[in-house]
Design goal:
The termini are far apart. The chain has one domain. It is built from six helices and no strands. The chain is mainly alpha-helical. The protein is globular. Helices cover 83% and strands 0% of the residues. This is Stage V sporulation protein AE.
């Protein structure tokens, strides 16, 4: 039960900090999302993300921080295996399943919910 509570408050804290950043600055949401992905990548490269994820579970892996770390891990493994070309291939390979699932599920949701354009 504590795993669920920890994931909830850590994920909520990440989201709250991002919301404060959006409210108190003039940063656009797209830039903040990129900052989260880059932060996850940097934390992974520094070896900080792994212990953070072990502590927070889904609270750390679900937000965009987790996507940045996934890209980093894919790049690191591809560079170890294939050399320099892995810098370009690894991130795409590691993130492909998550991106593909997001596209498929968002398409299904758009079919079921019939979204409309804002006026």
């Amino acid at each position: 039960m504590m795993d669920y509570i920890t994931a909830f408050w850590v994920g909520g804290l990440v989201c709250a900090l991002v919301q404060i950043l959006l409210d108190k600055t003039k940063l656009l949401p797209g830039r903040v999302m990129v900052m989260l992905v880059v932060t996850g990548t940097i934390l992974g490269a520094l070896g900080i993300y792994k212990p953070f994820q072990e502590f927070a579970g889904a609270g750390a892996s679900v937000p965009l921080l987790g996507f940045g770390n996934t890209i980093w891990e894919g790049m690191r493994e591809a560079v170890d295996k294939e050399g320099f070309i892995g810098l370009f291939k690894g991130g795409f390979t590691a993130g492909a399943a998550g991106i593909g699932a997001a596209l498929i599920f968002s398409y299904i949701a758009s079919l079921l919910c019939q979204p409309k354009m804002k006026k």
